[in-house]
Amino acid sequence: MDTKNEQVNNGNSKTKKVLTYLAGFCDNTSIHGFRFLAERRRLVLEKIWWSVILCGCFYVCAKLIISTLKKRDENPIFISSSQHPMYLWDVPFPAIIVCSEIMVKQGMYNASYYFDKLVTKNLTDEEYSLKS
């Protein structure tokens, strides 16, 4: 008999711990609406109202996420900076990615020097050095 009473009490203490934890979470979270579930001065009807509202919000969010995942599976798209979605196979290959944060040592290869030399082919090295 004693073991059965201990199991009932142990179950009640676990439930109390979980409820205390949930109340603490609701009191301290920044998610709007949860605070109203844990406040002691709220009416039971008001807590039920907030529970319904929160459940409705979670339901709508879940539906939107599921529909977005289904859409992505049916039509994989690549979103570019042009603000218009396009199919992945419509992206011209090879794609070029410009990364301006990678610095190149000027001493290794000076593209401006060679470009200028190409454009101004008629200048000799001496004339080119005077130009700079």
TrEMBL record:
Keyword Transmembrane included in the entry's annotation: yes
Record's bilayer topology term: Multi-pass membrane protein
TM regions (residue ranges): 48-66, 86-104
Subcellular location(s) per record: Membrane
InterPro entries tied to this protein: ENaC
One MF annotation (Gene Ontology) recorded for this entry: sodium channel activity
UniProt family annotation: Belongs to the amiloride-sensitive sodium channel (TC 1.A.6) family.
Organism domain of life: Eukaryota
A Pfam family matched in the record: ASC
Keywords: Ion channel, Ion transport, Membrane, Sodium, Sodium channel, Sodium transport, Transmembrane, Transmembrane helix, Transport
A GO cellular component entry from the record: membrane
Protein name: Uncharacterized protein
Main location: membrane
